[in-house]
UniProtKB/TrEMBL annotation:
InterPro entries: Aldolase_TIM, BATS_dom, Elp3/MiaA/NifB-like_rSAM, FeFe-hyd_HydE_rSAM, HydE/PylB-like, rSAM, rSAM_sf
Keywords assigned: 4Fe-4S, Iron, Iron-sulfur, Metal-binding, S-adenosyl-L-methionine
GO annotation terms (biological process): sulfur compound biosynthetic process; water-soluble vitamin biosynthetic process
GO molecular function: 4 iron, 4 sulfur cluster binding; metal ion binding; transferase activity
Domain Radical SAM core: 46-265
Residues at which S-adenosyl-L-methionine binds: 158, 177
Matching SUPFAM superfamilies: Radical SAM enzymes (SSF102114)
Protein name: Radical SAM domain protein
Cofactor: [4Fe-4S] cluster; [2Fe-2S] cluster
Residues that coordinate or bind [4Fe-4S] cluster: 60, 64, 67
């Protein structure tokens, strides 16, 4: 066991059996988290990158069984921000000190190429790096967004188990999701993906495959979070993922992909009140505080218990900065692109 952890720390390479072994046994979790923390420090340093998250539409044409924004959920009031609101939230984020904004929404076709590129060009004027997280699109659409100024794209694979994916994401295809990730790479985006931990029917073997998939596609960013059952979805009575296992999948991802960006996800903080700080000390180097204003935060309800729903962007910025500084970590002042200092031999 300890020799496998040592191997991961030194070579950044494990096979599936070794990953499953570490996922199964929890006696050496502390050692895994500490090794991931050392690898994080060695490759990406102590700086924490903050990304301001703008949740600009909770309207979604998809019907993922785990998600509160699924189209069949009639219990959530739907909203779309205006172009002006989105740009203003970005401006305010820039003024607070953010160097990146993440534009996230459900799969909402109202935001077509015309509207999105207009928004992207306006935000680009503000000297911000832009991450998009708006779902599956065509190559041409991704290309238009890249040309309009988007720098990064987040699209979680959710699970690499094709059967499970297609069961939980009705009418979506695993092939198309992978096609999207490949297109984004081809177009020169920094590509973020990731998975949910604790989905019903998900095995440790499949989580090991997820980590190997992240490495295989050379992802630039990986977000891992626990699945948290939403009472307004068909998966309401399922168990959901644990904090510890999510943290371990995240830490193992750091060991195998030493120089990428890894967020301490909001869902981790929902399950543990110090979740983000613990994650930052177990391999993570990014936090994505919410910069959406007003009532919208509450309505962007992927899962219950979401943090910060009644807080302002300024409050969250101060809150998280203080917490990060309290564990001796500085807030980065640059855009926080992937450092790419680890090249495979
Ligand atoms: N619990 C945790 N995360 C969820 N997501 C969607 N629904 C849930 C849930 N119930 C995540 C998905 C998606 C991201 C935007 O939110 O992984 O990619
Ligand atoms: Fe829509 Fe994304 Fe939720 Fe699926 S996970 S229902 S695509 S917002
Ligand atoms: Fe929002 Fe702490 S980050 S209240």
């Amino acid at each position: 066991m300890l020799d496998v952890i040592k191997k991961a720390e030194e070579t950044h390479s494990l096979n599936k059996d070794e990953l499953v072994l570490l996922l199964k046994e929890d006696k050496f979790d502390k050692e895994i988290f500490e090794a991931a923390d050392r690898v994080r420090k060695k490759y990406v340093g102590d700086e924490v990158h903050l990304r301001g998250l703008i949740e600009f539409s909770n309207i979604c044409k998809q019907n993922c069984l785990y998600c509160g924004l699924r189209r069949d959920n009639k219990n959530v009031e739907r909203y779309r921000l205006s172009e002006e609101q989105i740009i203003n939230f970005a401006k305010n984020a820039r003024n607070l000190g953010y160097r990146t904004v993440v534009l996230q929404s459900g799969e909402d076709d109202y935001f077509n190429v015309d509207r999105m590129t207009r928004i992207l060009r306006a935000i680009k004027e503000l000297d911000l790096a832009i991450t998009l997280s708006i779902g599956e699109k065509s190559y041409e659409e991704y290309k238009a967004y890249k040309e309009a100024g988007a720098n990064r794209y987040l699209l979680r694979i959710e699970t690499t188990d094709k059967g499970l994916y297609e069961k939980l994401d009705p009418n979506m295809s695993h092939e198309n999701r992978k096609r999207c990730l490949m297109d984004l790479k081809k177009l020169g985006y920094e590509v973020g993906t990731g998975c949910l931990v604790g989905l019903p029917g998900q095995t440790l073997e499949s989580l090991a495959d997820d980590i190997l998939f992240f490495k295989e596609i050379d992802a630039d960013m990986i977000g891992v979070g626990p699945f948290i059952p939403n009472p307004d979805t068909p998966l309401k009575d399922e168990k959901g993922g644990t904090f510890e296992l999510s943290l371990k999948v995240m830490a193992l991802t750091r060991l195998l992909l030493p120089d990428i960006n890894i967020p301490a996800t909001t869902a981790m903080e929902t399950l543990n009140k110090n979740g983000r700080l613990i994650a930052l000390q177990s391999g993570a180097n990014v936090v994505m505080p919410n910069v959406t204003e007003g009532e919208y935060r509450k309505l962007y309800a992927l899962y219950p218990g979401k943090i910060c729903v009644n807080d302002t962007p300024a409050h969250c910025f101060g809150c998280i900065s203080g917490k990060i500084n309290s564990i001796g970590r500085p807030i980065s002042k640059d855009y926080g692109y992937r450092k790419k200092i680890f090249e495979k031999a």
